[in-house]
Amino acid sequence: MLHADSSVRVTYASLVKVTNPSSNLMVHSHDVFFGRGGVISVTGYPLDDLGSYWQISQPFQTTKKTYSDPVLCGDTITISSVVVGYFLRAEDTQFGLTTELLPMVHGITKDRLDDKIDWKIECADKE
Q1: Distance (Å, rounded) from C-alpha 56 to C-alpha 87?
Q2: End-to-end CA distance of the chain, in Å?
Q3: Domains in the chain, ordered, with CATH?
Q4: How high is the pLDDT of residue 95?
Q5: By the number of CB atoms within 10 A of the CB, which of 26, 40, 94, 108 ranks highest?
Q6: pTM, whole model, 2 decimals?
């Protein structure tokens, strides 16, 4: 968990792991192929392997950030999987046989980038 007063320096080229503190599951990525194309499957996974590493980059259509620029609370970033190179993207997608639209996250390649790959850093108060 990133804390506002953390001594850990996260920059716009950092590799990070994202872990849920309650379940201890890590956000994990791996390739899944359907028909003509592949997508990234994002799940919670209990084991630490390469699929648990994510690279932080600058937000979509923004001024250039350098690898040494720190990521601060409130900053907007993009996150890409180290394994498959796809960006996490949030969108409303029809799920299963229902007609409801549910938020989903899936990978996207650089040729289809838009502002749905942006994620905001929210820092927790240190307890």
Answers
A1: 10
A2: 11
A3: 15-120 (2.80.10.50)
A4: 58
A5: 40
A6: 0.73
- In order, the DSSP letters of 70-92 are BP-TT-EEEEEETTT-PEEEEEE
What does each C-alpha distance from 58 to 24, 26, 97, 127 come to in angstroms? 27, 22, 36, 29
Residue ranges of the chain with per-residue pLDDT less than 50 = 1, 102-103
Q: Which amino acid is at 31?
A: D
Distance, CA of 113 to CA of 118 (rounded, Å): 10
Q: What is the rounded CA–CA span in Å between residue 29 and residue 13?
A: 18
